[in-house]
Amino acid sequence: MHHNTLWNDAVAFIRAKSPATFEQWFSGVQFDGITDGIVSLRARNIFVRDWVDRHFLPTLSDYLRSQTGWSVQVAWSVDGNLERPVAFGIANLPSLPIRPRALAAVGMTGPTSQGGQDSATRPPASSGHGAHSLKAAPKTVPVEGLNPKNTFANFVVGPSNQLAHAAAIAAAGGGGPRYNPVFLCGGTGLGKTHLVHAVAHRFQSEQPGARVLYVSAERFVNEFVQSVQEGRMAEFRSRFRDRCDLLLVDDIQFLASKTQTQEEFFHAFNTLHQADKQIIVTSDKYPQQLERMEERLVSRFSWGLVADIQGPELETRVAIVRKKAEAEKIELEGEVIVLLAQSIRSNVRELEGTLIRLAAKSSLLGHSIDLDFVRQELAATVSPRANEACVDDIQRIVCHHFKLRSGDLLSKDRHKSIAFARHVAMYLCKHRLKCSFPELGRAFGNRDHTTVMNAVRKVDRLRSCDPGVRAHLDAIEKKLGTCA
Ligand code: ADP
Ligand code: MG
Fold first, then answer.
1. SS3 407
2. Are strands 212-216 and 246-250 parallel, antiparallel or unpaired?
3. Pocket test for ligand 1, best of 147, 162, 194, 320 (most atoms within 8 A of CB)
4. How far does residue 339's CA lie from ligand 1's centre (Å)?
5. Does the beta carbon of 352 lie inside 6 Å of ligand 1?
6. What is the pLDDT of residues 285-314, one digit of tens each?
7. CB under 8 Å to 91, separation ≥6 — which residues?
8. H, E, C per residue of 66-92
9. DSSP character for 97?
10. pTM for the whole structure
């Protein structure tokens, strides 16, 4: 049997077992081939890799063994940029209430699940849940605490936040099966709050009169405590349990150790969930990693969809800077945009903050935001640690250019084409980043610094005498320079 056919059969077999879960996880997995009984798979991130490894691979290996008689093994690599994911993710699933725990009431959600009906032609508050209560209040009540700039239109989607974005769109009524709750998690400044605000804006414009509640967990705690003290618990409960069509709770990790508030939130959660009201929770950790949080709450957080947001890739950062500069009417050259995106990698908030600071300073000094100005400013403010991800970025783009696997550059493989790509990557890192030879050696699979020195020297020489090499370098540098 042909290997790809074998793989396709295996995929069909596991997909049939639980389609929605399959779509969710395999949209982050790519099949790279089977050789000598080894299945090469690529995962969008380590979280996807571990989950799929644990939950799907036993079935997959059993199936492959039953078909071929071999005991197959799986070789994983991790790569933020999948070109051919096995599945297409929840946003592209037909609108079927597939998972018993994902809300079955697709009727409440947006135009797609209504068979493509345009929201403009749909009478407000006529469809689905809460319609009876909406009749009394068809006017849109402004939601407290929302930043009007945090819309879907202003959100840049990339591989690092794709699943979270798709889940948010579906939760806001944009189609695809709705998951309840949606648990968005990821480090600080990566767009969690932005996404939940966007859901609130979209939900309200789709369903005028819908009652949307947005609170930080901190505020939930404070209001709870205050209500207890002032004997207004009935009102508090009615607000969070009965008078709410969409509940958004930001930074749930703040509930840690607050046992009474957790109890109260648990009941609000249950009431809303049973009434099919959408709940979205954000957190800086995965549910299982939340500390001092009641087990029953933790388990509920994983009922629907847990979607993580990772640090954005270089291309996404470039797009974010570009978008932000446009929005703020800051004029930036392409090279400056790329330099900013390369220098500040961990956190979108920091990236935006730097941009705004640069703009402010440049207008105060009457100086244009050119490359030199930005270099100077960055040198003064950005920590040298920022270089680590730049090595990653260069490695990733070189891999992509030479169509290698992400681990190849760090591997011991001395195959000619891989070794050449590795040398090119080392050369580019040396020339573009402020890294020492030993640092680069470590970043390339713990190689000796002399290896890096030789590689850089060699590529330098080839660049001046070999047009083929020059063409490769030009192409890669172009990608590094203008990747957006
Ligand atoms: P978090 O809640 O995860 O700490 P925020 O949602 O507050 O992060 O995001 C921090 C800043 O970065 C906000 O100004 C937000 O608009 C911006 N931001 C984050 N991710 C993106 C993105 N993908 N596209 C555009 N802006 C983003
Ligand atoms: Mg936040």
1. coil
2. parallel
3. 194
4. 20
5. yes
6. 999 889 899 999 999 999 999 999 988 989
7. 166, 169, 170, 175, 176
8. HHHCCCCEEEEEECCCCCCECCCCHHH
9. -
10. 0.60
